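Narrative of activities, Objective 1.

The group set out to show that a structural description can be obtained from nothing but a protein's sequence at a throughput compatible with the screening campaign. Below is one input-output pair from the validation batch, recorded exactly as produced.
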Amino acid sequence: MVSAVFHSPAGAQTVPVSAPAKATPPASSKAAISAAEHQRARQWHAFWMAVLPPLMGLGLLIGLWALVSITTKGSIPSPYETGVQAIEIFSDPFYRKGPNDQGVGWNVLMSLERVAVGFGLAALVGIPAGFVIGRFTFLSRMCNPLISLLRPVSPLAWLPIGLLVFKGANPAAIWTIFICSIWPMVINTAVGVQRVPQDYLNVARVLNLSEWKIATTILFPAVLPYMLTGVRLAVGTAWLVIVAAEMLTGGVGIGFWVWDEWNNLNVKNIIIAIFVIGLVGLILEYALIRIATAFTFEEVKS
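Output recorded for this entry:
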């Protein structure tokens, strides 16, 4: 403690005055500051753990790609050469210079259109069929051998049948998407219906509910997560198949674009197309996962 002495006139007493001591923050403030710093450190750690591993994986891919390019003496274009070509392609992705010379944007949109039509038709048929097969034991036993027989068939094996029946490349490609997309939706929907607790159906029977009421008020909410899983698997399969189908049928589409660039020996464009196909598939997968997560009901633990 520092004291100051003031001299008063003669005969007066001297009074020591203490200087104010420096204020110290209370213990609760120190704890709050420490907790905030700890929370901030945890947030930074979570951020880097979310960002750094994907960046390292991407760097590893580019490094291996560059190594392969050097090893093959330029037969495989380097990442830099492909990047320059990608900038040129995506500077005008929607150009039109004829029916067989269109930008990558039009090719992707045409492929997505075929996937949407084929997948939509598969959903209109597969989801109700899955409900009926899962609901009635007789139909389940009748259809299971057919599904087990037809589901493992390669989707491209159905393409000649589509060409024979529909007499056109575009409807044949849509038919191929339809036949490969229907099985995941049928199977997952039927499994979801069969896993609905029997107690729910017993209550519906006691209340004398109609089959439509049972399907809309009991089965549909319980089956929705299974159904969305089937939808996600079907879309992924459809996007894989359309590329191969378009390689065989021709026309406008990302698969035809890949095959056309191979005929022109333009390997850089083929690599760009591979990344475009992967990116579009990733976006579709992410969007459907988000939708499925939003409609997934988890049990609340007491």
